[in-house]
């Protein structure tokens, strides 16, 4: 799909081209500015990235100009819009259009590199700040395993909708062999776990909820217990249906879905009561940007096995 994005800033390999690194800049920046600064920086021994990786081609896409809700509708380079920098989960419907377009653009760059003869195992994807957030989304919705993912000072868009699923997957990953790619979706074995994204906002909400519950009288608590028992029974029934191989309905509806999809709201409510499966979590991300869902028979997904590293510096959300 064609989008009105500028051509990426490209720095060719200084020797025979065998690897490609695609890196997305932060909000308000652009490909040339980010790329030139990064490639001019030096390691402790004075070497640059191009000197260390002479066979690597660097691609720095530039985000299109979008009206920024945070900056009173000023047009800036950003991969997607945000309503707030303090709580990135607020009005996430504003993020969907940008995430869809950016994901399509990143996927096309990857396809172009493969067409030029570079194998997927030699393609690295990553980004800084908002570019990290956008590239994480692109990684989780691509259909192949890449060589690596590198993210810096970013976050995971729409994390509150899939956090329960990721926590469950993290527990399963701990039981797998050390160093195995099988646990790459949680990516604790490769440097970070998606469960760490957005937890501050979630913990604050949970703390407030606990405080309110302490103020309730005994009668309200008894009613709450009865509701929890009812929810547990419904959850057990859903698990029994899953074990028999029956579908448990459409994927949960996320921010940004149009009116024709609102009939599945009840499925989203049910999903919040029981952790989603890996593929269900991915399908939520895919359907949010109008990508076709993964088949219900799938029990794995190639992109989940991509080795990944996330670096955190001083807290920043741009």
TrEMBL record:
It comes from the Eukaryota. One of its GO terms (biological process) is fatty acid metabolic process. Residues 260-274 have a biased composition (Low complexity). Residues 172-274, 293-318 are annotated as: Disordered. Gene3D superfamilies: alpha/beta hydrolase (3.40.50.1820). One of its GO terms (molecular function) is carboxylic ester hydrolase activity. It catalyses: S-hexadecanoyl-L-cysteinyl-[protein] + H2O = L-cysteinyl-[protein] + hexadecanoate + H(+). It holds the Pfam family Abhydrolase_2. Residues 8-170 form the Phospholipase/carboxylesterase/thioesterase domain. Belongs to the AB hydrolase superfamily. AB hydrolase 2 family. This is Acyl-protein thioesterase 1. It comes from Orbilia oligospora (Nematode-trapping fungus). The lineage of its organism: Eukaryota, Fungi, Dikarya, Ascomycota, Pezizomycotina.
């Amino acid at each position: 799909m064609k989008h009105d994005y500028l051509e990426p800033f490209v720095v060719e390999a200084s020797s025979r081209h065998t690897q490609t690194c695609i890196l997305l800049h932060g909000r308000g920046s652009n490909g040339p500015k980010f790329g030139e600064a990064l490639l001019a920086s030096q390691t402790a021994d004075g070497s640059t990235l191009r000197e260390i990786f002479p066979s690597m081609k660097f691609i720095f896409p530039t985000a299109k100009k979008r009206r920024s809700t945070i900056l009173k509708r000023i047009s800036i380079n950003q991969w997607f819009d945000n309503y707030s920098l303090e709580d990135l989960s607020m009005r996430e419907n504003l993020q969907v259009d940008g995430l869809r377009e950016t994901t399509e653009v990143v996927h096309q760059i990857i396809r172009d590199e493969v067409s030029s003869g570079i194998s997927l195992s030699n393609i690295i994807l990553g980004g800084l700040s908002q570019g990290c957030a956008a590239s994480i989304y692109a990684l989780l919705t691509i259909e192949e395993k890449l060589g690596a993912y590198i993210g810096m000072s970013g976050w995971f868009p729409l994390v509150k909708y899939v956090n329960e699923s990721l926590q469950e997957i993290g527990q399963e990953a701990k039981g797998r062999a050390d160093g195995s790619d099988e646990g790459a979706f949680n990516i604790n074995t490769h440097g970070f776990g998606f469960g760490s994204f957005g937890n501050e906002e979630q913990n604050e909400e949970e703390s407030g909820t606990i405080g309110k519950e302490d103020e309730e009288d005994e009668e309200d608590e008894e009613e709450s217990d009865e509701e929890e028992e009812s929810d547990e029974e419904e959850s057990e029934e859903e698990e029994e249906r899953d074990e028999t191989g029956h579908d448990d309905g459409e994927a949960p509806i996320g921010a940004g879905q149009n009116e024709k999809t609102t009939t599945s709201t009840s499925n989203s409510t049910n999903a919040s009561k029981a952790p989603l499966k890996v593929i269900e979590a991915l399908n939520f991300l895919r359907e949010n940007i109008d990508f076709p869902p993964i088949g219900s028979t799938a029990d794995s997904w190639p992109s989940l096995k991509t080795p990944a590293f996330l670096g955190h510096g001083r807290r920043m959300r741009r």
